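Database export, one record per block. Field names are fixed; values are copied verbatim from the stored entry.
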Amino acid sequence: MWPPVLIASVLCYLEKLAGYLLPQRVLDRRSVHHVAALLPVALLTGIVTVQAVGSGQTLVLDARVPGLAVAFVLMARRTNFLVMVVAASATTALVRHVGLMA
């Protein structure tokens, strides 16, 4: 288990070091700014998706999926974040309570 952790740590350090060593003209490119702005969104989307429909090594479609769908719709409508979280949680709880999905 430790060799992959150490390798990942070294690679992360080298990536950060590369950011300091790159010339400023490379960092000022519009494409670099665009990718840097979208990368956190892509990573967060991946994390949320894995947590919402994954359980170990299997795909699980349970009450979290309707809650995630409600959050997605409210996010698309630019609803307040707190309202979105409460609505998604309430949807998940209601679906579990009614017993539509495990």
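Remark 1: Residues 51 and 64 are 9 Å apart (CA to CA).
Remark 2: The helical segments are 2-21, 24-27, 30-53, 64-76, 81-98.
End of record.
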